[in-house]
Amino acid sequence: MSESKLIVDFETAKKLHEVFPDYKGYDWVHCNYIYNNEGKLIDWWSQESVSYMSDENSYYPAPYYNNVIHFIENAFDWSIYITPRFDGFDNAQIDTYYEIYKTGYAGGYDHSSDAHVGDRWQSANRAIREVCD
C-alpha cells in the first residue's frame, strides 16, 4: 500500500482544520505531510513545505488516518470501525463500509454506512468527516 493511502485525503484534512482550528499537526504523532490549498500532498520536511508553513492559511496538516481515528476515540469517545464486505459467490472482498458509535451516549448512537464506499481508506476518510460534522 502506498503511503499516501495511509494519509487522510484533502477533503478530510480541510474538514479537520475547520473543526479543530488550533490543530497544526504537531500534536498528532507522525504527521509527515501537508496539503497546499490546491490539494497537492507535500512532504512536511521538504524545502517546498517551508513556503507554505510560514503562512498557516496556505496549508492543511495531513496526518495518518489511523492517528486521527485514535485521537477521535480518545478525545471524544467516538469509535470508528471499518468493516470489509464480501460477495456471496466466492467470498471475495468487494468493498468496505464503516460504523460509528458514541460510547456512553444516552440512548446510544449507532451509524452504519448504508452505502458501500470502496476501500478502507475511502471508508476511513468518509467516517472521519461524518464524525466532524
Give the SSE layout.
Elements: H1 10-19, E1 33-36, E2 41-43, H2 47-53, E3 59-61, H3 65-76, E4 78-86, E5 93-102, E6 110-112, H4 120-132
Antiparallel strand pairs: 1-2, 1-3, 4-5, 5-6
By DSSP (H or I, 4+ residues per run), the number of helices equals 4
Helix content: 25-40%
Class derived from helix and strand content:
alpha+beta
Order of helices and strands: HEEHEHEEEH
Give the amount of beta strand, in percent: 15-25%
Q: What is the CA-atom radius of gyration, in angstroms? A: 16 Å
Low-confidence stretches: none
Task: Name the shape in a single word.
Answer: globular
User: How many individual β-strands?
Assistant: 6
Mean pLDDT rating: 79
Oligomer: single chain
The order of strands across the largest sheet is 2-1-3
Q: Outline the biggest β-sheet.
A: 3 strands, antiparallel
Query: Between the first and last Cα atoms, what is the distance in angstroms?
Result: 29 Å
Account of the 3D structure:
The protein has 133 residues and is an alpha+beta fold. It has helices at residues 10-19, 47-53, 65-76, 120-132; strands at residues 33-36, 41-43, 59-61, 78-86, 93-102, 110-112. It has a three-stranded antiparallel beta sheet. The chain is globular and about 50 Å long. The mean pLDDT is 79.
Write a concise synopsis of the structure shown:
By secondary structure, this protein is α+β, with helices and mostly antiparallel strands. The chain has helices at residues 10-19, 47-53, 65-76, 120-132, and strands spanning 33-36, 41-43, 59-61, 78-86, 93-102, 110-112.
